[in-house]
Amino acid sequence: MSWLQVLRRNGRSGWACRSGSSAVEFALVAPVVLMLFAGITAFGLCLGAAHNLRQIAAEAARASIAGVTDTERATLAQTMVTRSLSSGAMFRPDSIKVTVGPDPNDATLYTVTVTLDANTLGINVFSKLIPMLPTILRSSISVRKGGL
Fold this sequence. Notes:
The protein is an alpha+beta fold.
């Protein structure tokens, strides 16, 4: 008795045996879903890091208003960044660089720039699965000299 005759005798006709179809569907869909989740996770981490970096830069700019010289402003900004990082930020203190200097477009402004090496976030484990976002994140805040 052939395989087709057994299927017809059991009440099924044609190619009714579907015992492995769910495994095949899972094998086709799982890599796409895993890459989608990896992309969402990596993008969420980078978006959170950019937002956190922007907040740290804004706090450093606000703190540097009290400085009179560029050196004093840089010291105040660095102190505020160190204080912000010690209160539970998602960055290591050695991964952030702070620079304070005059704005190249306007002499009445100075700019506080906070730069992060995003490789320290640990999202480079996804680099083989998805296209990666920039490895250097930078946030600049301009403040008017004198604070007004």
